[in-house]
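Dear all,

This email documents one entry for the complex benchmark we are building for the journal club exercise. For each entry we list the sequence lines for every component of the assembly. Then comes the predicted three-dimensional structure of the complex as a token string, followed by one or two observations. Please use this as the template for your own entries, and keep the labels exactly as they appear.
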Amino acid sequence: MGDTQKLRRIIATDCGSTTTKSILIEYIDGEYRQTVRGEAPTTVEKPLNDVTRGVINAVTELEELARLKYNDESISFTKDSKIWLSDKENEGVDAYVSTSSAGGGLQMMVTGVVARMTGESAERAALGAGAIVMDLIASNDKRANHEKIERIRHLRPDMILMAGGVDGGTTKHVAEMAELVGAADPKPRLGSSYKLPVIYAGNTKARDIIKDTLDKKTDLIITENLRPTLERENLGPARDKIHDLFMEHVMAQAPGYGKLMTWTKGPIDGKLTDIPIMPTPAAVGNIMQTIAKVNNIEVLGVDIGGATTDVFSVFTEEKVFNRTVSANLGLSYSISNVLATAGIDGILRWVPFDIDESELRNMIKNKMIRPTTIPQKLEELVLEQAIAKEALKYAFIQHKEFAVSLKGGQRQREISEAFSQSTSGASIVNMMSLDLLVGSGGVLSHAPRRNQSVMMLVDAFLPEGITRLAVDSIFMMPQLGVLAEISEQAATEVFEKDCLIYLGTCVAPVGKIKADKVALSVKITLPNGETFQEDIKFGELRLLPCGVGESAKATLKPARSLDIGAGNGQEIETELHGGVVGILLDTRGRQPFDLPVETSERVRLLKKWMNELKAYPEQILK
Amino acid sequence: MAQAYSPGLTVTDSIVLRKERILPLKGKVLVKKGDKVKADDFVAETLLPGKVIPFNLANKLGVDPKFMKDYIKVKEGDILKKGMMMAETKGFFGMFKNIVKSPIEGEIESISNLTGQLLLREPKIPVQVKAFIDGIVVEVVKDEGVIIENKSAYVQGIFGLGGETNGEIKVIVDSNEEIVDLKNIDDSCKDKVIVCGAMVPLAAIHKAQQVGVAGIISGGIDDQDLKKLLGYNIGVAITGHEEIGLTIVVTEGFGKIKMAQKTFNLMKQFDGQIASIHGFTQIRAGVMRPEIIIPIEFDEKELVVEEAKMSELLIGTTIRVIRQPNFGLIGKVTGLPETLTSVESETMVRILEAELENGEKITLPRANVEVIED
């Protein structure tokens, strides 16, 4: 899309599952800048149950803040409970664009013929795609057919994966299962603007029967049999289909989505044109790819939301792009699932103070049932950031399993492997060669201290060697991703000036040695002319000042069995880039990175590291 | 003023409700438009085909399938009683006869002289849908079910367990701050919907299960108790299908949280009246919350469903704090500063100033309150 005319004012919103974010972009003194930001809870709950109400609320906040900023009461962006699009100089805005992930997590039902065979294979495919399996329905699960139908209706799954039968085997049971799904006539939970996706990955011989039964009632997608023979399991194709369909059809949908679609418009070639709403991960993915392309670097990015966590990566010389949406890892709707995935100990290992398990569990559940609240107390902030680290960690694990060299080229698994849940294919994610790690999403963009964003990114992703860190300033990557559809110039200018905030650089040797041994000998000439020189022992953190746009000359020599990119014990001379936080030297070890099991020692170390990183006010780290 | 806060859950002494009651498969609607129904009345039913049981008769007789017709005593469509003779061989001189009896009650679906296989079908299974709420049938969905409307006192819970049930409301605590005393759960609570105060501990739930309580309404529940009750951790909250013998509706949240005074007052006001409740909860876009419905007298003309509206946050609005600190406390808004302000966690947020019921003045993020309709 081109820039056919200068747009004065553009409003862009991102409807997340929890919060709707709005930004105002204005053309000021010959350039585009992001000037005001607003937000409001997303309104996907009764009595409103209409995503446009949250949009209007977020834009109204934008309007109020713009009036304050410019001391001009006449500023108005809404009219008749809609966004006011006008081409007149002092009225409304020229364009309105939006992204959406308001549909939230992915909850599926799976069907199979034999629960313990095809049923379980289908369940594994769904879990592998990041879904929650609400129920497994099988021909032999002892429930009466009407109970199965009732269950499908009541649970309102986002998608159904149907498996069953080995290739060429009997079609009778699969056909029966299709009849049940057909009889249930399942409706998507988010209204009638799309048909419920049903993926068929069963006996190839039954495809025509399945089409006859389900094609009209559902959005039927047929893919390879996930259990072609009893001994072989082929989960890759079904898993990829689930993932794609989720992002394209379910995630962006929300009550009121149809109405919102009629609002998003902008001038193209002088004519007001509909600008389709983009799924948030697609928009952020566009931005990540652009960063990698423009700078010719390897990039790993993450966008952590309330219901989902999306991970993006561009690796290898061919700049292979991968995107995964962990559909049930997030910090509000999905927060309880992070607890279920990581376990209470997984979360507590990041917490530098005593907390009663019962209190923590109740806090997490209360956040889940009231997802739009924010931590007011410092302890709650520390806890939410601890949970965020685990959500990021598990989303990254899932991403690494997906990001293999050839899309769809996953190795087929022998059945023994399938049961052991081993991963297939070699991941192309290489943390040592990674150049830039970018964080986005409320908990990373709105952390009260940018140092906390550094801490969360480093603890969750464990970057190796030398890695630059950046964060989306106020969480606007999604909006810029869709803004590029009507004005690449506006998107690029705002991205460079207002969006990407460099936090600094992390230096982390890979390997493990004893705690009293020197892990890294450094000599760094800082921008202020001072020289920092130290033999840093294993298990330490150092934070050095080095601001945005500044760099420092460094000589880095790891211990004999540690590597910072040039091989074990090999010295590197390089330039380290600064940022709003600075240069972080991290000798806590990689592969493995271990935290002490013993509580008092772990708490002592956490406090020491958090103090060094200035992550939290001192009172909580005493 | 922008709405940077959560709309509250509905708690009202009078609302017009509309409920769809639909069969899992097409069947027969038992009521007609305009009929008045009670919660326990069946409004639609269907007969589902019974289970098919393959039965190899030739094998049982020990004959070649093509000779089976010489011995079979039943034909397709025949009604079967359990133990009824289906076939008999001639034996030798009337002795050593082989008799095959029906293993089920049902009917003969088909007979194959090629394979010797009989398909027996068990009797049809009736499936019925109840009205769930007292009310009036305002629409019949042909062959599928009905839509019922009524006027009710109504409380939307925040989280629940278990399906639809109904029973007489019985308040068994003196105040909304109390934790229910086990000795108050006795045989008099059988089939009742008991109202506990600030929390229902696991022991109380077990006692309620023992005495046959229909439902529990409580301000809070402890997550660890929940895990022990169910035997697993709830990851994504999609509940309502738990088979725990009763239904639980939590009105405020997890932990000990006093039940909102308005909710508690409503429960006391309707003590002794029948309530329909369910625990269906889905915390995701298109949220579903549990409900407490207490039908009240109404005139048909009153049945006009009001348009949903979002209440405004203004000076003087009554609010409830929905996150720590001061979780659950009620107050009145005294100030709505425009600019972003730093709170204890150093987060920059839009705040509001409020005076709590105990006179304490606080500031807190607008996102951490919900509006309570006065």
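Observations: Residues 224 and 458 of chain A are 39 Å apart (CA to CA). The longest strand of chain A covers residues 31-41.
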